[in-house]
Amino acid sequence: MKPTRTLATALARGTVVLDGGLSNQLAAQGCDLSDALWSARLLVDSPEQIEAAHAAYVRAGARVLITSSYQATYEGLARRGVSRDTASALLVRSVELARRAGAAERDEVWVAASVGPYGAMLADGSEYRGRYGLSVRELERFHRPRIEALASAGPDALALETVPDTDEAEALLRAAAGCGVPVWLSYSIEGERTRAGQPLADAFALAAGEEQVIAVGINCCEPGDTDRAVELAASVTGKPVVVYPNSGEGWDAGARNWRGDATFDPSRVRSWQAAGARLVGGCCRVGPEQIAELSALTER
After folding, report:
1. What is the pLDDT, as a whole number, of residue 127?
2. CA 187 to CA 242: how far, in whole Å?
3. Binding site for Zn(2+): which residues?
4. pTM of this prediction?
5. Residues 51/65, Cβ–Cβ less than 8 Å
6. Residues of the chain with pLDDT under 70
7. Which residues lie closer than 8 Å to 178 by C-beta, 6 or more apart?
């Protein structure tokens, strides 16, 4: 059952807690994610594991669940022999699994359908570089069918997330226009620039006049880069800010494991809120334990 309030209304009234990294929770449940489709493979093989991961975050205090569709694309699924009709059904399934998990645990849980960047489909890390050599129009054509399929499932929002550059942000906003679902736009950043090197002020400005955009901000980045980015997003757009960084550990692509220390500090939510953040959570390697701490802090 969908919440009676819209997510935009909830954000206008206070802070709403997002979930954490879906993939790390699935790994903690014993799932093998060593696949180009990443967690999206489980939409085919083990949907019950995805639902269980969502439920773990709701129990931890999350009120917004991001679906497992980040890396689920028509092109990526086609490489596995999945037909277009079946791919559409899997995208819809991602929303249904999150909705069911939320309804089983709480009365009011919103579902955000994840729309990952083009680079996620390539599965080569290029979502952290951007500049794929495609035009805005070409990127729009890539994103539109998936957005339409996800929107048909009735999510509360579309999460246009981990966006590495302004060209893709423009394409995503164009593709989502008229789909009937509100969106948030969040960039993956380094310092005060997008991953592709554009100033964040310019990147955030793309969403400033877009009524469909209910929040703008950052995700999948270093925790230390968040404070200034939240300030910029709020000042440039005047909209609620969304922020969900990684744990702070670094991914070693050669060794295929995480290195370094986690620096995600749930108490940082205080400075985020003061700067204008209203949608807060975690991304890669941030699990239910950290979301529970963050949730407890927002309720005080």
Report:
1. 87
2. 10
3. 220, 283-284
4. 0.96
5. no
6. 251-256, 300
7. none
Pairing of strands 250-252, 257-259: antiparallel
Q: Which residues pair with 217 in a beta bridge?
A: 186, 242
Three-state DSSP at 300 gives: coil
Shortest CA distance to 67 belongs to which of 147, 126, 175, 169? Answer: 147
Binding site per annotation, positions: 220, 283-284
Cβ atoms of 1 and 265 closer than 8 Å: no
Helix (H, G, I), strand (E, B) or coil at 10: helix
How many other CB atoms are there within 10 angstroms of residue 160's CB atom? 29
Six-digit token string for 258: 């995480």
Q: Token digits for 112?
A: 């955000």
Query: For residues 124 and 108, what is the distance between their CA atoms, to the nearest angstrom?
Result: 37
Residues listed for the chain: 300
**Distance (Å, whole) CA 73 – CA 270:** 36
How much is the pLDDT for 252? Answer: 64
Q: Whole-angstrom Cα distance, residue 50 to residue 72?
A: 13
3-state secondary structure 31-48: CCCCCCCHHHHHHHHCHH
CATH numbers and ranges of domains, the chain: 7-299 (3.20.20.330)
In contact, 136 and 174? CB cutoff 8 Å: yes
Q: Are 262 and 237 in contact (CB under 8 A)?
A: no
Residue 152 CB: number of other CB atoms within 10 A? 15
